[in-house]
Design brief:
With 487 residues, the chain is of the alpha/beta class. It folds into two domains: 7-265, Rossmann fold (3-Layer(aba) Sandwich); 270-478, N-(1-d-carboxylethyl)-l-norvaline Dehydrogenase, domain 2, CATH 1.10.1040.10. The chain has 23 helices and twelve strands. The protein has helices at residues 28-32, 34-41, 56-62, 96-104, 134-140, 148-161, 178-189, 195-202, 219-229, 269-293, 299-303, 306-320, 332-342, 352-356, 359-366, 368-376, 382-395, 405-408, 415-424, 428-440, 442-445, 448-464, 466-479; strands at residues 18-24, 45-51, 70-74, 77-81, 86-91, 110-113, 167-171, 203-204, 208-211, 237-239, 244-247, 264-265. A hairpin with a 2-residue loop joins strand 3 (70-74) and strand 4. Helix 6 (148-161) crosses helix 7 (178-189), helix 17 packs across helix 22 (448-464) and helix 22 (448-464) packs across helix 23 (466-479). The structure holds D-mannonic acid. It catalyses: D-mannitol 1-phosphate + NAD(+) = beta-D-fructose 6-phosphate + NADH + H(+). InterPro entries: 6-PGluconate_DH-like_C_sf, 6PGD_dom2, Mannitol_DH, Mannitol_DH/Oxidoreductase, Mannitol_DH_C, Mannitol_DH_CS, Mannitol_DH_N, NAD(P)-bd_dom_sf. Residues 20-259 form the Mannitol dehydrogenase N-terminal domain. This is Mannitol-1-phosphate 5-dehydrogenase.
Amino acid sequence: MNRTSVRKHLLAGQAPMSTGIVHLGLGNFHRAHQAVYTAQAGGGWGILGVASRSAEVADAMNAQDGLYSVLELSPEGSSISVPGVHTGAIVAAGNPAAVVDAITAEDTRIVSMTVTEHGYCMDPGTHRLALDHPGIVADLSGATPRTVIGQIARALERRAETHGAPITVLNCDNMQSNGAQTRELILEFLQGSKAESWIAENVAFPNSMVDRIVPATTDTYRAAAYELLGVHDRSPVPAEPFTMWVMEDRFTAGRPAWERAGAIFSDEVEAYELLKLRLLNGTHSLIAYLGALDGHATIPEARATGFIEAAARAVLEDEYLPTVTLPRDFDVKAYIASLFERWSNDALGHRTQQVGSDGSVKLPQRVPEPALELLKQGVMPEHLALTVAAWLCCVVPLSGFDPGPHARAMVDPARERLGALAAQSRSTGELVRSAIGQVFSIELAESNDFARRVTDYVAVITRDGVRAAAREAARSRTSRPHASPAA
Ligand code: CS2
């Protein structure tokens, strides 16, 4: 695969001129989202892709002139395109110094990230830098930094000490106030450094909301890409047709004309973020956990199952929607309809296992705040409790309970820690309370009503199955029992 062999599918009219953007996290999401917008924006902006650990994608791209294809799949048909905006790809784990050098380079005007929620070494309860994280401890000791926060922070320090050229740090992960949050983490890392005042003047951290459903690549997608492309692509990216990007227009060193590709520049990004994190991502998690426990491999299969669709509607409409403020002139009915349509995309086959993975770092962005808000109003968020219970049943099943192959395949950085907690706990209630306290927040763990509800659902799932638990949540939805308002 090279520019000539895929000429008619190329989105970027010209080969990238130089590296203006260093992107950390060369996963499928970046390759089907920001890279596509950048290619369509034109202007010759090039992206250096930095993979975190695995060399698979970087090797494939480097062997293909920096190219790969995006395979758009929907029940209406499929199409293929080749963004063609990468100037190269490197692997951070093998060469951390090269990452810091690339971000420091004077030509680099944006450093962007999609390293997933757990790439930020953040304490989920306090939203502060986890100072006891071994990676942060090592980076703070002065070694070549290996964490994302350490690498960006040290590169900013070097920019401040050398050429002083401004730069924008653009977080594209599913985190609340992702730009502001990144700024806090970096400043915490650099506490006491001379670079602090330079950063205040020269570095922007715009908030952004990103959205596109992008599954992992498999051989099936490779074969489909070959059909459409006519040449082999070692690393195509499957994606749904829908795509959305909303961000603040605060870039201290220029940016591509992403609006040409449909990106929205708005001063209401936080409203879009919360809307997406809760209505889309939060509901997605519930579909994934109920789906996996009910034996479904994919989101569309799960969503087509009556009790799961009902639970998804309940959590979305009764529990997430009342906790968000809609952006101006936003058609929420159409948005909700489009979510259910997107979750029905069986040509895409997004796996429950993929959405269910990393729950211990994803759910803290989705569940605790809306749960606490409803609890404070005296409303028991039944389906948020069910979400937490279903997740626990997938990743730390009680002894004798088999959550099934899709749940067993979920990866979660807290699996081991939760297993240890389970071994120490004298009861399911104790396990649930400590899990909520450690993974979500102390405040939520202190709501006895919520912890008790989660414990009840864990018990019902374990004893009678996930359908019985969803039935119970649905009954509670109808009768809307009230919890005693949390203090
Ligand atoms: C999903 C997201 O895996 C997950 O948790 O909810 O990756 C989701 O597909 C994207 O955020 C869609 O933009």
